[in-house]
Write a structure and sequence with these properties.
With 284 residues, the chain is mainly α. It is 80% helix and 0% strand. It is globular and about 55 Å long.
């Protein structure tokens, strides 16, 4: 229904709501594990899933409206399958991989950091409170993104988000070398990276979904989601065997992910921006 700039504005409103989960979920998990046992975490998750399923089934209906973005041409439809058309779209993969690296950095931290905090001697209930700064940082990043989108294009905000992410990961590596035995050095450095996610995730998703014809948006959304999970899976698998409760390997992993995000921007997005400037010099 909307162009890239409008989609980014909408997602910057939606994602702060989802951004509360990093603070709420570990806190609920810590309470359940402390007072009832870890099995009740799975029981709670199952019950919540059933509730969401019933709510969605009763509330949502499919009501497609008129498409604004260009439809897939007959020539394209006859030549390639819809999925293949998305898979061959380099611009789509550029934005998707940027989102995937940002998401993987966050998931790698949330999966491994509890072991780091346990090594420092904190309980599950205490650890659950350490994720509140992440949610606040993510909310701040989303709110600032919403303001910036009124004056700056999506690609510029993505570039700024990547720069902040690299800066936060460098800070994390430096603090890892200093070996300061305080949880603040862990979650505060990660808060910088989570702040950058407030730039990258709404803008990257918006750019990826609007880089394909509107008929293919559903396929594109599915590929964006599964790409995030696959990159996060590989990253978490690697860090589980490398870190073993140590902060520095976790910091290096997130630093590598931030460099991959920069690499994707340089490889896929900058050529697109330069080509657009050559075609429309009046926009410079």
């Amino acid at each position: 229904r909307y162009d890239k700039q409008q989609v980014a504005q909408i997602l910057s409103i939606i994602f702060p709501i989802a951004g509360l989960s990093p603070a709420i979920a570990p806190f609920i998990g810590g309470v359940l594990e402390t007072y009832l046992g870890w099995r009740y975490i799975f029981i709670f998750t199952a019950c919540y899933g059933i509730f969401v399923f019933i709510f969605v089934t009763c509330s949502l209906t499919d009501n497609p409206n008129t498409h604004i973005r260009p439809m897939m041409s007959n020539a394209d439809a006859n030549r390639d399958s819809p999925i293949l058309l998305v898979l061959k779209n380099r611009i789509f993969w550029g934005y998707t991989l940027i989102v995937a690296t940002a998401f993987a950095a966050f998931r790698t931290y949330t999966d491994e950091s509890p072991f780091v905090f346990h090594q420092m001697g904190f309980s599950s209930l205490e650890i659950g409170n350490f994720y509140l700064p992440l949610s606040l940082a993510y909310l701040a990043g989303n709110l600032l993104t919403k303001k910036l989108l009124n004056r700056h294009p999506v690609d510029t905000i993505i570039k700024w988000g990547l720069q902040i992410m690299v800066g936060g990961s460098i800070l994390m590596v430096v603090l890892g070398f200093l070996e300061i035995p305080h949880p603040g050095t862990v979650f505060l450095s990660m808060s910088v990276i989570t702040f950058s996610n407030g730039f990258l995730i709404p803008c990257g998703n918006a750019a990826a979904l609007t880089s394909v014809p509107s008929r293919l948006t559903g396929i594109a959304a599915a590929l964006v989601g599964i790409s995030q999970l696959c990159v996060a899976l590989c990253s978490v698998y690697c860090i589980s065997s490398l870190a073993k409760g140590q902060f520095l390997p976790l910091a290096w992993t997130i630093f590598v992910l931030s460099l991959l995000g920069i690499f994707n921007y340089i490889t896929f997005i900058i050529p697109k921006i330069m080509k657009a400037r050559l075609v429309s010099p009046v926009d410079l």
